[in-house]
Amino acid sequence: MTAPLGASDEEIEAVLKEKQDWIRKSREKVIARSQKTIEEPALSKEELQKLAQKVEVYADKWEPVLGVKAISFTLRRMKTRWGSCSISSKRIRINTKLAYYPDRCLEYVVVHELCHLLEAGHNKKFWGQVEKALPDYKETIKLLKE
Predict the structure, then answer these.
(1) One of this protein's Pfam families, by short name (predicted)?
(2) CA 38 to CA 41: how far, in whole Å?
(3) Superfamily classification of domain 45-145
(4) Are 31 and 40 in contact (CB under 8 A)?
(5) What pLDDT, in 10s, does the model give residues 105-122?
(6) Which residue, of 81, 83, 86, 124, is most buried by count of CB atoms within 10 Å of its CB?
(7) DSSP code of 146?
(8) Is residue 66 within 8 Å of residue 90, measured between CB atoms?
(9) C-alpha to C-alpha distance for 142 and 146, rounded to whole angstroms
(10) How far is Cα 110 from Cα 3, in angstroms, rounded to an integer?
């Protein structure tokens, strides 16, 4: 708490008493929020290399099947997405958090982003391409949401 320099101890205590319910509720919210947003530790150089190798394996597997070719794959720590694709530059970004998930999740994200090189949006044609490549993709999405 901050208080004006000239405030007496009695004035400070009075404000604290008056606001004690608000202070308690605010404190509980902060604690609850911090418990929900605990992040995984950053990946080591070796773990990043291993993840990059897996991405390369999946790209080599699926690019010829889908008939597309990405210019590059970049690993990035992302807060809200598992991957992203710049269609015009054919550059794909993969979330490093996928290192903590089963390999099928990484494979799904690679396929998903490669399918964007065929179809920009998430329309019926796009999901048809994903399903053709990975018939069980809906189960994998469930894993990613857990």
Answers:
(1) YgjP-like
(2) 9
(3) Metalloproteases ("zincins"), catalytic domain (3.30.2010.10)
(4) no
(5) 999 999 999 999 999 999
(6) 83
(7) -
(8) no
(9) 6
(10) 54
- End-to-end alpha-carbon separation of the chain, Å? 39
pLDDT over 70 (residue 17): yes
Boundaries of every domain in the chain? 6-38, 45-145
What's the whole-number mean pLDDT along residues 47-61? Answer: 96
Region 49-70: mean pLDDT is 96
Beta-bridge partners for 92: 73, 85
- By DSSP bridging, strand 83-86 and strand 72-76 are unpaired
Q: What DSSP line would sit under 91-134, residue for residue?
A: EEEEEGGGGGS-HHHHHHHHHHHHHHTT-SSSSHHHHHHHHHH-
Contact 63, 69 (CB under 8 A): yes
pTM greater than the 0.85 cutoff: no
